[in-house]
Amino acid sequence: MTFLEIKQNLNEITGGYLIAFRPAIAVGIFAASSIFSAACGGSQTSDNRSAANADKSKTVETRVAPAIVREIPKFIQTTGSFAADETTEVAPEIAGRVESVLVGEGDFVRANSIIIKLSERDARLRLAQSKAAEAQARAQIQQAEAQVRQARAQIGLDKGDAFAQNNVPAVREARAALASAESDLKLAQTNERRYANLLDTGDTSRIVYDGRRNELEKARAAVFEARERLRAAENSARGDRQGIDAALGNLENFRAAFENARAATALSEKTVNDATIRAPFAGFVSSRPVAIGEYVSPNAPVAVIVRVNPLKLLINIPEQQAALIQTGMSVSASVAAQSERNFAGRVSRINPNLNETARSLTIEA
């Protein structure tokens, strides 16, 4: 039987009428108040009438007392059901065969303690495979990084240099040689024109002029050759760039493969850990529907754990008294198994939904 105590102020006036406050239904919201009673006599005998008539002349003393305001608790009496504070169905995240069972029904388990172990054989095989794939991918990354360094070194780029065609040493040298050849060509052209004028005025000989003419032709040939060398160096640089890009592409692929292998390793490690089923919190095992050798599927309950300290009390309040209930109100409960004891508690939650069939409100203490 459950009692919800609701306190209410009543004015008790001495000499007034007594009004008994009782709930509309016998659901244990009980009202306690001070009761004034008066004894009423039966029929009077003739002797009593004579004594009464004799005492009429006597003085009757009276006293006036002030009205007293006193709190009179009001109670709702109703029934309820005890429930565990927390109940959980423990289920594995992976499928497997039960290898060992460490608890039985009624056993107390601590939080995170092992209750059931599944076979880890397949999970550990997959873990070994994923670790081998991870090691292989790591070695491929190191090889690809070496290829990138080699490709950059072949064209004279340091590790921190950004690739650009003009940064390639062979291209820089060819471009500098072309600039020098073009400068020599300009000088040869200037000398050829000056000696041509001197030849026209007769101030120099044909042999000297022909020498300057030959120098001009050589300078033109040197410029042509320098341009060809620059073109070849640029083509070679473009080819080297493609080689570097290919090496970088391989490196990125191997890095992606390594990340996938590492993720597979983490997943395999989780699978191995999931083969060990642990208690989510401290409590008692109320059910353990599996045995050694049984094959279990993911999300199939293998144990039910309940936490019974503290206990929850689910109370049904009739619709008529629903408006009187507030959180924090005191509760006194008794059970048939221990009828001599009363258990104290307080209202902790009020369900906002009214039961349409029973026309009652469920509260939790």
Describe the structure.
With 365 residues, this protein is α+β, with helices and mostly antiparallel strands. Helices cover 40% and strands 28% of the residues. The chain has helices at 46-54, 121-154, 169-201, 206-274, and strands at residues 2-12, 28-29, 68-78, 80-90, 96-101, 108-109, 114-118, 276-278, 283-287, 295-296, 303-318, 330-335, 338-346, 349-355, 360-364. The strands form 3 sheets. Strands 4, 6, 9, 11, 14 and 15 form a 6-stranded antiparallel β-sheet that branches. It has a 5-stranded antiparallel β-sheet with strand order 2-3-1-12-13, with no helix packed on it. Strands 8-7-5-10 form a 4-stranded antiparallel β-sheet. Helix 2 runs antiparallel to helix 4 and helix 3 (169-201) packs antiparallel against helix 4 (206-274). The longest helix is centred in the middle third of the chain and has 69 residues, at 206-274. It is elongated.
Write the layout of secondary structure elements.
Blueprint: E1 2-12, E2 28-29, H1 46-54, E3 68-78, E4 80-90, E5 96-101, E6 108-109, E7 114-118, H2 121-154, H3 169-201, H4 206-274, E8 276-278, E9 283-287, E10 295-296, E11 303-318, E12 330-335, E13 338-346, E14 349-355, E15 360-364
Antiparallel strand pairs: 1-3, 1-12, 2-3, 4-11, 5-7, 5-10, 6-9, 7-8, 9-11, 11-15, 12-13, 14-15
Helix pairs in contact: 2-4, 3-4
